[in-house]
């Protein structure tokens, strides 16, 4: 009787050679898939970071534009306030010397036809 040692016990593969080659090929394909998936993920992450950076840049530009507009509007408010003060002073000075304001006839009520009331139907 001859004692046959199974191939697996002798250090060989339990699978036939073609099955071992298939396993190696599957392993290689899985590695390729992992590499492709990692590359695809890396590209997607770069795209996402770029998009996020562009959004932040756009917001920063909008912020700066609004700051400039705000500064301009504050300047305009200051100019208009100064103009209002000046015109108030001019009016106050005019009221002191205006003959129409000091005329006694101004205190007598004289019925005047109002331009708007004459246009309304009766």
What does this structure look like?
With 122 residues, this protein is mostly helical. The chain has three helices and no strands. It has helices at 17-97, 99-102, 115-119. The chain is rod-shaped. The N and C termini lie far apart (138 Å).
Give the percentage of residues in beta strands: under 5%
Number of helices: 3
What oligomeric state best describes the polypeptide chains here? single chain
Approximate shape: rod-shaped
CA-to-CA gap between the ends? 138 Å
Largest sheet: none
* Structural classification: mainly alpha
What is the gist of this entry?
With 122 residues, this protein is mostly helical. The protein is built from three helices and no strands.
Task: Indicate the topology.
Blueprint: H1 17-97, H2 99-102, H3 115-119
Task: Write a concise keyword list for the protein shown above.
mainly alpha, 3 helices
